[in-house]
Write a structure and sequence with these properties.
The protein has 123 residues and is α+β, with helices and mostly antiparallel strands. It is built from 3 helices and 5 strands; from the N terminus they run H-E-E-H-E-E-E-H. It has a single domain, classed as Beta-Lactamase (2-Layer Sandwich). The protein has a 5-stranded antiparallel β-sheet with strand order 2-1-5-4-3, with helices on both faces. The longest helix is centred in the middle third of the chain and has 22 residues.
Length: 123
């Protein structure tokens, strides 16, 4: 698949339960893996709504002010998991998501893995 390298890179991150590349215009998964068996379609649908609303909110917040600031990532913290959402700079309109087991993974290293995966992807 087109994003196989990106997904393989993310899937190697310690504690990953699920990861995918999603088109936030349509909510369609372009590639993904779920080592834990989590439903990628449900994750993509919910995470798409979050990314859409945050991108719109930031765009409205800075509209007309000449500020060129963009979302780097979005963190959702649950009792046992972290959800990381990252709009891709290398492919506008797409985002990466990663679900991380809080007991097994490292949040800082996972954020770095997402940044690296985005940077290494060649459109």
């Amino acid at each position: 698949m087109r994003f196989e390298g990106v997904i393989n890179e993310l899937a190697q991150t310690k504690g990953v339960m699920a990861c995918a590349v999603v088109d936030y215009g349509s909510g369609m998964i372009l590639d993904g893996q779920s080592p834990s068996g989590m439903d990628l379609d449900i994750l993509a649908a919910g995470n798409t709504e979050i990314v859409r609303s945050e991108v719109k909110a930031i765009d409205r917040l800075y509209e007309g002010e000449g500020v060129e600031d963009k979302i780097e990532d979005i963190l959702i913290t649950l009792g046992k998991q972290y959800y990381l959402l990252r709009p891709m700079k290398s492919s506008p309109g797409l985002f990466l998501f990663l679900v991380l087991d809080r007991n097994k993974g490292n949040l800082a290293l996972s954020r770095r893995a997402m940044k690296d995966a985005d940077r290494h992807y060649k459109n």
